[in-house]
Amino acid sequence: MKEIPDAKIQAWARLIRAQRVLLERVEQRLKDAGMPPLAWYDVLLELDRGNEGLRQYEIGERILLSKHNLSRLLDRMEKEGMLQRRPCPEDGRGSVVSITAEGRKLRRRMWPEYAAAIDEVFAGKITAAQAGEFSNTLQRLLD
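-> C-alpha cells emitted (143 positions)
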C-alpha cells in the first residue's frame, strides 16, 4: 500500500471539514434571514438557467448540493408554487420541471443573503489570487 504523507491526509480532512462547516454557516445565514434551505436556491438557479425546463435527472446532474432526496425536495417546492411539472413530450413516463414566476422571485430574494454569506464565510477571507489558485487546485482534483 502506498504511503500518504501526513500533510496530504491533513489537507484531505480539512477539505471535508471546511466544506461541511461552510455549508452549515451559509444554511444558518439563510435560515436567520427567513429563507428556505440552500438546496432550494440551487434547484431554482438551475431551473432558471434551463429555459424550457429540465428533466429530474438533469437537475441532479447540475446542482451543486447532494442529490439525496431530490424527488421529495421537488415535491415540496412544487407544493409551495416554486416549480411546476409537465409531461415530457419525448417520454410519457417522465416530466419536465420548470421554474415558476414565484420561484424566480424567491431566487432573486435569496441571492443577496447567499452572496453575503459566501463573502462572510469564504470570499472575504482569501485574496483573488488565492481564490484562483484554490480553484485551479480543486479543478485538478475534479479532473
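Helices lie at 6-32, 38-49, 56-62, 70-79, 101-121, 128-142.
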